[in-house]
Amino acid sequence: MNFSIISDNLGIYFQGLNNTIQLVSISLVIGLVIAVPLSVIRCSKNYFFSTPVRAYIYFFRGTPLLVQMFLIYYGLGQFELLKSTFLWNYLKEAYFCALLAFALNTAAYTTEILRGGIEGTPYGEIEAAKSVGMSRIKMMIRIVLPSAFRRTLPAYSNEVIFMLHGSSLASVITIIDITGAARIVNSRYYTPYEAFLTAAVFYLVLTFIIVFLFKKLEYRWYAHLRRDHNV
Amino acid sequence: MKKLFAMVMLSLFCASAVVLSMFFNIGNVQAKEWKEVRIGTEGAYPPFNFTTPEGELAGFDVDIAKALCKAMGVKCVLVKQDWDGIIPALLAKKYDAVIASMSITEERKKSVAFAGKYYQTPAKFIAKKGAIKEFSKETVKGKTVGVQRATIHDSYLTDSYGSDVEIKRYGTQDEAYLDLKAGRVDMLLADSVALDDGFLKKPEGKDYEFVGPDLTDPKWFGEGAGIAIRKDDSDLVEMFNKAIKDIRADGTYKQIQDKYFAFDVFGQ
What we know:
The complex is a heterodimer of chains A (about 230) and B (about 270). Chain A has about 230 residues and is an all-alpha fold. In chain A, about 80% of the residues lie in helices and about 0% in strands. In chain A, helix 4 runs antiparallel to helix 7 (about 95-120). Chain B is an alpha/beta fold. Chain B has two domains: about 35-120 and about 225-260, D-Maltodextrin-Binding Protein, domain 2 (3-Layer(aba) Sandwich), CATH 3.40.190; about 125-220, 3-Layer(aba) Sandwich (D-Maltodextrin-Binding Protein, domain 2). Chain B has helices spanning about 1-35, 60-70, 85-90, 105-110, 150-160, 175-180, 190-200, 220, 235-250, 250-260; strands spanning about 35-40, 45, 50, 55-60, 75-80, 95-105, 115-120, 125-130, 145-150, 165-170, 185-190, 210-215, 225-230. In chain B, the strands form three sheets. In chain B, strands 5-1-6-13-7 form a five-stranded mixed β-sheet. A five-stranded mixed β-sheet of chain B has the order 10-9-11-8-12, with helices on both faces. In chain B, strand 2 and strand 3 (about 50) form a beta hairpin. In chain B, helix 2 runs antiparallel to helix 10. The relative contact order of chain B is 0.17. At the A-B interface, helix 10 of A face helix 3, helix 5, strand 10 and helix 6 of B.
């Protein structure tokens, strides 16, 4: 056990931490922004609209994140035609490819989570909305979606944690995230135990923060379910 | 009740200790004789070691390994292992020796012992033809350079160019070639022979060329490629050293070398 190696190389780990936080938070925001409209479309009874969304979800839930990343990063590089377009300026960057894969992946899962929330809306809430004469869009925005968000919060916190852990795959395509930092330290000093244990501690702390934030959010959003009503 | 529990635990503990010590003894007895030597290699570093389309390991390292085993009179078992875990897996006894073009360096000698060298070739940069006219620290400033993670080339690049170029580290040399072709890196640094046979001589490498000098500084590039062995197995180090001498003397080495290269790879 030689933890002086770790303290000498903490700089790499913090660089990795920075990359991990950026990658995960940006892809989660993009994913959520995509997922909200998609989940509404997914619930549509019109197959013309809901089928493409179903296909998208099926693809991204049906294949491993690593395969999706390889398809985007190495796979697209194979097409010479693509390389002459402006798109290549973005796809050239490993960072963008990882972000794209993560965002599309989390969007697919989040869409399914939200669909469950929307379909589980108590019928009484919808009847109440109808009885005061809300339009379908207004009902969606004011009643169904907020109610769905509230119900899906615990499931979504799982997705956020999975995304954090999934982001460790970014190290495979040359990005120095927390895992990438650990791999560099391991490869230079042949100390896999110390190197990856340090990475594990970083992930544990991040997960702890995520759990804490969701607990705060649940406390707020579940105010009506709380036993102590002295808010 | 508590006493009974403690007694049971104690006897379980004793029993497991006996069983464990038996295992270790058996292990030691077998280790002394060396009827079988398990050899770890990477299988993604042509022409030294690569995986054929049929999934077999092949290449210079693999042929040398088989010849050495024959000279030592032991059975060879080849084990495939990713490069950045190749020393940890040796230490974890997943195999007994590494024959995978591993350079003998001071850094690695801290963790493992080495037999040989069994060949020595310089390291070099490659880049797109005409992209770098005159190689110097100034002309490569700001370029992106790809390198295989956990190699001597990685250490050299990090120490000598770390602040001047952007370094991208890959798990295998093959992935680095893909990104050079895709234009994600400007240059690669690796062993000159591996670059030449693994890339430049192939159709996909026709637009690329060597740039800069032959790099041989022993501080980073060591004393040539050797066979890594756990420090406890000093008998195996001696066996391998003798076997290298044997195959050099009886012409087996030259026969294998001529199959892959048109020049002497053993070096000085």
